[in-house]
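Re: that chain you flagged

S.,

Sorry for the slow reply, it's been a week of failed gels. I finally had a moment to sit down with the sequence you sent. For the record, here it is as I used it:
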Amino acid sequence: MMNVIAYEQSIRGHYDYLKDLKGNTSTLFSELIQRFTVINMRIDEFFTMIRPYIYYFYNTDENLPDTFLHDVIIGTNNEMNEYIDTIVKYMIADRETNKEVENAINKTLTLSNSVAMILDAVEAIDLYAKNTMIISIKAGEEGSTLTTIAVEMSHLADMVNDVSSQFQEIIEYLDKLRTKFSNTCQTVDIIIENYLTHLQIKMNSTIREIIGHQKKLSYNVESIVSFADQLKSSIHKILQEFQVEDIFRQDIEKILFAIEALEEGGIDDSEKDILFWGMYQKLLSLQHDFMHLYTSAGESLHTMKSNVEAIASDYTKASETVFEGDEFAIEKVYNSLEMLQHETIQYIEDILAKKASLLEISSDVLEQLHKFQEFFTKIQDVVRKFDVVNMLTRIELARHQQLQKTIASSLSDISIMPKKIKRIVEESENLYKDVIGTMDATYQSYKDAMSIQDSILNNCASNLKKISLKLYESKKYYIDISQQIERNVNTLQQFLSEKSEQIEAFKNIEENIKLFCDMLDGAGVEKNMPDVEKINKTVDTLTMLYGTDYKGLMLVSLLKEYSAAKTEDTVIVF
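Prediction finished late last night. Pasting the C-alpha cells below so you have them in one place:
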C-alpha cells in the first residue's frame, strides 16, 4: 500500500495546478495555433510576393514570354538585330544610287576634254592674231586697220581663255567633289560592313554571355522556391499535432477525477493503489505528450528558421554572384545592353550625317553644273565675234594685195577655227544637257530615297532609345523587388527568432507533471500493471459510487485504458 499521508498537501497542490491547466488548455492551444497560423500566413505572403519576381527575372526558358530573359534580354537583342538589319538593307540598296551619282559626276568631268580642244583652237587663233599684228605693224599705214583687227582678235582669244579658265576651275572643283563623295560613300560602307556587322557579332556574343550568366543566377534562386514546400510541410505537421486539445483536457480531467475520488473515500486501500497506478500511468503519458509537443514545436520552428536562413543565404549568395567588383551583374546586363544600344544609335547618327553630306555634295555638283550654261553662252558669243573679225580681216586683205600674199594662207587655216569651236561647243552642250538631265534625275531620286531612309533610320534610333525606357523600368523593378525580398526575409527571420511563451509553457507543464510523477514514485506508487481482477474490482466499486455519469465514465476509462493496453501486448503461447 502507498504511503500518501505525507504527500496529501503536495497532491492537493498538483491538483490545483492541473485544474488551472485544464482551464487554460483551450487558450494555450488556440494561441499556439494562432501563432503558427500567422507564421503560415507570412510565409504564404512572402512566397506569393517572391514567386512572380523569380518567375520574371530567373526563368531560363528563352521562349517564355513575360520574363526578363525573353522580354528584355532576348527582346532587346532581337529588336537591335532587326534595326541593324534594316539599316544594312537600306544602306546596301543605297549603294546603287550612290553609284549613279558618282557616274553622273564622272560623266560631267568628260566636259574637260571639250575645254581642252577649245583652248587648243583659241591658242592657234591667238598665235595667228599676234603674227598678223607684227606683219601689219611692219606694213605701216597700209596695215594700220589690220593691226586694230588683230588686236581685237587677240582680245577675243583672251576672253575665251578667261572663260575657259573659269570653266576649268569648276571642273577641278567637281573632281574634288567626286573624290569627297567617293570617300564619304566608302566611310558609310565601312560603318555598315565593319562597325555594324561587328556590332551585331559583339551584341550576339554579349547576349549569349548574359544568358549564360542568367542561368547560373537562376540555379541559386531556384533553391529558394524549394524551401516553400518544406516550410509549408513543417507548419502543417505541427498544426496537425496541436489538434489534441480535447484529448489533453480529458486526460487532465481523468487525473483530477482520480484525485477527487481518492479524497472522497468509498474505496479501500487496495483500490486506492489501483487508482494511483492508473493516475500515474496517465501522468507519464501526459508528461511524454507535452514533452513531445515542446520538442516537435521547437524542432518545427528551428526547421523553419533554418529554411528561412537558407533562403536568406541563397538570396545573399545570388546577390553576391550578381556582384562583380562594385557592380551588380544585373546592372552589368543593363549597362551592356545600354552600351550596345548607344553604340548602334551613334552609328545611325554617323550614317545620317554622312548621308546628309552626300546629299549636300550632290546638290553642290548640280549647282556647279548649272554654271556650265553660262560658259557655253559666253563661248558662243565669242565665236560669233570671231566670225565678224574673220570677215573684216578678209575685206581688209582684199584691199592690200601685198598683205594678202603674206598672211592669206594663215588666214585660211584660222578661218575654220571658229566653226571648229562652235562644233565643239555644240557637242559639249549636247553632252552637258545629257549630264545635267541625268544629274537632275539622280539628285531628285537620291533626295527622295534619302528622305525615306532618314525616316527609317531616325525611326530605328527612336525605337532603340525606347529600349532604354524598357531597361530602366525593368531595372527599377529588379531593385524594388530585391529590397522588398530582403525586408521580408529579415522580418520573417526576426518573427521566427522571437521566443514563444506558449511553446515554453509546454516545457513548464512537462516539468510540473514530472514533479508529480516523481512525488508519486517516492510515495511507492505501483508501476507495474496490477492483477486484472483487482482492476476489475476497482472499476466495479467506482461504477457503484459514481454510476454512469461523466466522472464515473472517465474514472473507468482511466483504468481500462492501461489494463486493455497491457492485455493487447500479452502474447499467449499454446
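What I noticed first: The first strand starts at residue 323 and ends at 324.

Talk soon,
D.
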